[in-house]
Design a protein that fits this description.
Bound molecules: iron/sulfur cluster
Distance between the termini: 23 Å
Mean pLDDT: 89
Order of helices and strands: HHEHEEHEHEHHEEHHEHEHEEHEH
Number of helices: 13
Strand order of the largest sheet: 1-2-5-6-7-8-9-12
Structural class: alpha/beta
Number of strands: 12
Largest sheet: 8 strands, mixed
Shape: globular
CATH architecture of the largest domain: Alpha-Beta Horseshoe
Amino acid sequence: MDLYAGIMSISQSVIIHLLLSKGRYFGAALLLCIDMKEFKSFYKRVEGNEGNKCNYPTRLDTYGCGCQHNCKYCYAKSLLDFRGLWDSEKPAVATIDEKFISKLPKEVVRLGGMTDCYQPYEREIRNTRKTIKLLNKYEIPYLIVTKSAIILDDLDILNKDLAHIQITITTTDDELSKTYENASVPSERIKAVEILQEQGFDVAVRLAPFIPEFVDISQINRIKCDKITVEFLRVNPFIKQWFDIDYSKYTVKRNGYWHLPLKEKKRLVQQIDFKEMTVCEDESMAYVYWKYHFNHNPNDCCNLRR
Ligand code: SF4
């Protein structure tokens, strides 16, 4: 899962903390019960700001309440850990059976909304593989977002008409990535992207979060893939702990996050050279700009093949 894939609104967490600090234990407990149920749910439609902007708000997690990649900056971890729901060694395995899949609407479902569906556990459990086979059977399209080259284990079952794949990269430096992510190193992820592209899959590089200091753009531009989706870093106190970068450039404050100014984002994006490029944006004013003046497909910042 990418940085922003946690589905719970941060505001709800803030309210819980606030209620606890004021001694309103019953209210906090009630809210915690409600949102723990939400966190334990493997299938959901994302709502709020993210849901309004995202063309594919339906999420299905094959694993939940933990991810072995255990990225330091993981947004989902930040929300689950303090509730005692995050297990990075043995995540929960979703019960996904044929009856459940057969009832899903025939619209794109995103695998890996809360956790990565190709974390190492998959090699043991094969729950994602089982789910993909069922989605294929019922002709339900799926969007896989992963930081893992383990996806290549499933080349034999990924359906080119149904599968859309985004492989997330946060840096081009293998050693740097090891300091904050336990996923495949970027060079392995890039190799996976190129294999999937070569085999004719609808695949994109997902540069998310895009932290300019961590990325060699000339290396990104050499990736043999037609599509890239860029999602800039947005900053809050939780994020600030993990990356040793200059935050003074993040001067635009919206919805509790600090963003780079649009002018700076445009300058950076102009250096990226792919056949098709889109920017996935959270900040409302910049979102409108990318949607109408930049994105390859204005109605779909994921730019899935139709
Ligand atoms: S890969 Fe796993 S640990 Fe990393 S951000 Fe995604 S869900 Fe969180």
